[in-house]
Protein: Putative L-allo-threonine aldolase
Amino acid sequence: MSKTVYCQKPEAYLDTLSSVVCSPSFSSTSFHYTLYSFMLPIQLIMANIPPPQAQQVTVAESWCSPGPAAYDLRTDTITTPTLAMLQAIAQTTLMDDVYQEDPTTNEFEKFMADLTGKEDSLLVLSGTMGNQIALRSLLTQPPHAVLCHPRSHIVHSEAGGVATLSQASVQFCIPANGRYLTLEDIKRDVVISNNIHVSPTRVISLENTLAGVITPLEEVRRISQFARANGIKMHLDGARLWEAVAAGAGSLTDYLECFDTAQMCFSKGLAAPIGSILVGPKTILEHCRWVRKSIGGGIRQAGIIASAARVAVEQNFGRGPSGEGGRLRDTHTKAKQIEKMWLDRGGITSRPVETNMVWLDLPHSGITADQVVRVGKEEGVKLMGGRIVVHHQVVDEALVRLERVFERLLASEKKTNGVVHEGQSVYR
Ligand SMILES: Cc1ncc(COP(=O)(O)O)c(C=O)c1O
Structure:
């Protein structure tokens, strides 16, 4: 189904109005919707009278708020772009970014460098591309190694890119506290040596948040000081650093001054359709641009990506340095609510809820991931096992349905006694 939208100058108000006109009750009874001046009385909008000189755009219903992910709690990558993003795309410049001639992209890269307190930034197509390009550019030649948490996305879910692109070995470092890496963990596993039998650690790669858990700023500072004192580069997979910052763990600039390079995703909780930003020093990013080209990541009309990403940052992360005015904090509150719903019924969680992820300890309750998926489906909410991820497009009704799922799983469903694994999924 599609909708006709009349747009004049809409970025700021489109989102607000879309939440009115695209509400389930409205959409079920209306065929055409008219959006125009923010000041226009809602009655006029409801009467579907197009404004003078308005431009008519027909959009698929999936662009309207809250979007197709309203009952999907499997992951935040499932979020969908908003009408405001579509509007920004419609108004972007369309110059060539391989030639670095696109004003929207150039301004956005400058905006991101300023926002993060880094010298430069580079738009990339995905978080994976950002991580792998950064590692390739920080490393020189083998033998060399990257030290990281064993659950790190860079080794776990990036198709072996550290090996194929950088020819680096990986040194796993397991946090003694079971949550996040500390300097003591790093010192235990780092390899600083000229002994020709070893592969020296050249990069420490942290992920923050990792599985929704925050690495505290103080700890990152300690690790960074140690790394710098020993000539080791620091990379951050900050796909969800936005979440840590919105939770009040520290500002973007506080965190990012501890790293040489960092990538941050726009297409997770921030809901852009595509893209990540890589930030760091100019010299490193010049090399990153080169590597990006070599793997087919040179983008032509990049304004299409940059314009939507900017809306994602300004509206969904928020305009304040710690996500003030954005939409992430509310998702953390909802995650806490979900945790409470589970705990109140006798369940336990395997990790603390610090941001937007809730980890149900299914084995403890004798429940399988398959049961969770099945009961979720029956109640009309998409789940994939013990990990529940909240994003800003999740509607309140989804939590009501989830409560019914918990009720059934913990009270009346037949429990299994077998060994149960945490939900394994391709959704990250
Ligand atoms: C922590 C983390 N880093 C990197 C990525 C990679 O992002 P992309 O899917 O855009 O390549 C993901 C994807 O979910 C992720 O969760």
Notes: Residues 77, 126-128, 153, 207, 237, 239, 265, 267, 276, 428 surround pyridoxal-5'-phosphate (CB under 6 Å). DSSP finds 18 helices and eleven strands in the chain. Residues 103-317 form a domain with the Aspartate Aminotransferase; domain 2 fold (CATH 3.40.640.10). The chain has a mean pLDDT of 88.
